[in-house]
Amino acid sequence: MEMRERVWEALQQGASSLEVAERFDVAASWVRSLRQAFRRRGHLTPVRPVGRRRQVSEAGEAQLRQWVQHEPELTLKQLAERLKATVGRLLSEATMSRLMKRLGITKKKMFGSFGT
Fold first, then answer.
1. Same domain for 24 and 69?
2. Domain range spanning residue 18?
3. Structural domain contains residue 73
4. In this predicted model, which residue has the larger pLDDT, 28 or 106?
5. CA–CA dist 26, 87 (Å, integer)
6. Would you say residue 47 lies in a domain?
7. Residue percentage of the chain with pLDDT more than 70
8. At a CB cut-off of 8 Å and minimum separation 6, what does 38 contact?
9. Which of 24, 27, 42, 68 is the most exposed place for a label (fewest CB within 10 A)?
10. Using one digit for the tens of pLDDT, what is the confidence trace for 53-98?
């Protein structure tokens, strides 16, 4: 939001979209889109939320930690299958791997000393 406001201020001071894009190291098309969006909506707030929604709730993450702590030999696929009941859909092994990394659970912790 801060970047949007700075870009908008530069546009209001009379700089062209290309000048503003170069100054802030953003795409000129983004600057033009920002200008058009402000004209249509009257504000700079993005319509879509930034980033992706989490696929596993905090409760699901807590359950995952518990499973790993008590059964460290479980594979990513097995953990994903268990989470399916909690989340409502099967997560891929790649998604499970990213989730484990975000939670700070590494293979070393899974097969060694969890929680240290």
1. no
2. 2-41
3. yes
4. 28
5. 37
6. no
7. 89
8. 8, 44
9. 42
10. 778 888 888 889 999 999 988 999 999 999 898 778 788 989 899 8
Q: Do residues 63 and 98 share a domain?
A: yes
Chain position carrying tokens 């700079």: 44
For the chain, the domain total comes to 2
| Secondary structure of residue 19 in the 3-state scheme | helix
Residue 50 lies in a domain: no
Query: Where does residue 25 rank: exposed (0-12), middle (13-18), buried (19+ CB within 10 A)?
Result: exposed
Show the tokens assigned to 103: 């939670």
**37 & 64 share domain:** no
17-24 vs 2-12: helix crossing angle, rounded to 10: 140
Full-model pTM = 0.50
| pLDDT recorded at residue 113 | 43
Q: Are residues 65 and 34 in the same domain?
A: no
Q: What is the chain's mean pLDDT, rounded?
A: 85
